[in-house]
Design brief:
- By secondary structure, the chain is mainly alpha-helical.
- The protein has helices spanning about 5-10, 15-20, 25-35, 40-50, 55-60.
Amino acid sequence: MNNVKCFRHKASLTQVQLAQACGVTRQTIYLIEVGKYNPTIALCQKICHALNTALNSLFGTNE
């Protein structure tokens, strides 16, 4: 599971806005949020930059 949706909401961004900032489609963001798509490291970095957060905050484990 990941925290993309939570951080996206905190940043007051829609899926479309985040997708545009990352150069992907809204469907890609949706699939990442529901855990049906594993993004590349490059895309993860773009998402982190757009949401102003660290990689482990978005995709880290909760151990």
